[in-house]
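Incident log, support desk, overnight shift.

02:14 A customer reports that sequence design results differ from what the structure should imply. Their input is reproduced verbatim below. On-call engineer (initials T.W.) acknowledged and began investigating.
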């Protein structure tokens, strides 16, 4: 076997392994994405519990790591001109990346809401307490006025 043939065989083998690495990383990224039911079905006692469960379900950090690996191997293979036809890999990377972007955006929105809801609850509780205090003060003032009126009549 000549050196050129040996080198070509090694290059083809390396290109096949690189493609397999990209595909494996994409499979792992897809596997690390949340399942649809995990986002839809939540068991919680209150709104904050629902938001926290949803935020946890939307955590895609592992999927992002696997996507980075896929993009790394894909870029190396493309620059080395190792792939005969890599359009399918590029499309799959883009599809996973788009879905990850959507899930990440939803995660950020849920996180914002999860931090806002307790603040809103506290503000509403304070408002209700202030309103009850005002009503009690008005009732006491009315009672005093009624008592003063009764004394004046007597």
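02:41 Re-run completed on a clean worker. Output:
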């Amino acid at each position: 076997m000549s050196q050129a043939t040996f080198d070509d065989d090694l290059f083809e083998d390396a290109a096949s392994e690189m493609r397999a690495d990209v595909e494996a990383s994409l499979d792992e990224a897809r596997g690390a994405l949340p399942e649809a039911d995990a986002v839809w079905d939540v068991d919680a006692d209150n709104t904050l519990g629902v938001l926290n469960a949803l935020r946890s379900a939307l955590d895609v950090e592992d999927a992002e790591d696997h996507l980075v690996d896929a993009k790394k191997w894909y870029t190396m293979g493309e620059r080395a001109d190792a792939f005969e036809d890599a359009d399918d890999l590029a499309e799959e990377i883009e599809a996973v990346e788009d879905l990850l972007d959507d899930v990440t955006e939803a995660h950020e929105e849920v996180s914002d809401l999860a931090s806002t809801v307790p603040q809103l609850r506290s503000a509403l509780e304070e408002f209700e307490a202030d309103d009850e205090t005002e009503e009690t003060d008005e009732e006491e003032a009315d009672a005093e006025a009624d008592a003063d009126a009764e004394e004046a009549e007597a």
